[in-house]
Fold Histidinol-phosphate aminotransferase.
Amino acid sequence: MFKKNLEKLRAYDPGPSVDRIKKKYGLKRIVKLDSNENVYGASPNVRKAITQDALLPELYPDCQNTELRYELSRRLGVKEDRFLFGAGLDEMIVLISRAFLDSDSSMIMAWPTFYEYYCHAQIEGATTKKIPCDKNGKHDWQAMLEAIDETTKVIWICNPNNPTGTYLAKSELDQFIQAVPKHVLIVIDEAYIDFVTAKDFPNGLDYLATNENVLVLRTFSKSYGLASFRIGYAIGSLPVVEEIGKVRPPFNNPRLSQVAALAALKDNCFKDACVLKNNEVLSVITAFLDKKGISYYGTQANFIYIKVAEPKQVALYCKKKGFLINPFQDGVRVTIGKMDDMKCFLQILEQAIFETSAEPSK
Ligand SMILES: *Cc1c(COP(=O)(O)O)cnc(C)c1O
């Protein structure tokens, strides 16, 4: 009855709601450190803009995102016709997969990286090559190059990478892009670029002028704190943007999402303040982990990947204490929260590691 490709997939499991968790463990408060949302909220401009906006519920939204497109174009120095908008980057990943992948093709991604790349390649019936990150949690870009063959249509570079927080430096990405054949689309997912402080971090937009096969992804969900509005965008060459545009549902960004994104964009102060606080808290976290001898990957994002022996048990322990974090294969990914919350969390994490390392693994 169903598409055969769905057999190996599971629907996204958000887990029990915050209210459920509170009730179950008798908690007064839950600190969400599991989705890399902006813990400082969104710009006050956003609230103002959406409450003042005429709602016009009966009209379809502007399918071109005209005002937002104009403002982004001006700020980023990219022509207006090079943008493509999606209901978050989640939808952009669906659209890219839809436009490029089928059962005769393959794509290359790092592992671990953002799961949605894998999921939508599966749905399209494409072959997926997962190239393990190196021992520092970085994309092994040389191995990714070696994996290219005549079936390769798309390569995903998540920079900084979710969940490891690591990044490819400019010199590395330069060499990588140079070596990838021009018929392969290189998608650079820069969901976390605003948090980056490393001086040698490459801006994906710099590759667009000379590489028609590069597509850069950005979102309002993380640094701008608009995850609930579902709005993100891709920037690429005309041929690429036009082809993907064919599979895009025309009215995929509600009017209020466009209004919210525009208001957020016009308040750089808010975003910059969040990034500053993020870095302050990060230095407290890394100082603590260093002191305790707990290993982690160096991060350029608003989350950190901490190595633990029993990720699932550590995450469960923290959940019972009111902190939601995400377990992965050999560590946990933790959103960098507010200072007070994180000081509290670090104590609990230390206990969790101590308690769970004494138990046999399950
Ligand atoms: C959060 C995230 C996205 C998706 O963000 P949207 O909310 O759908 O815009 C895409 N890529 C990465 C790497 C992410 O972490």
Remarks:
- The two ends are 36 Å apart (CA to CA).
- The longest strand covers residues 152-158.
- The chain is about 40% helix and 15% strand.
- The domain at 14-36+269-357 is CATH 3.90.1150.10 (Aspartate Aminotransferase, domain 1).
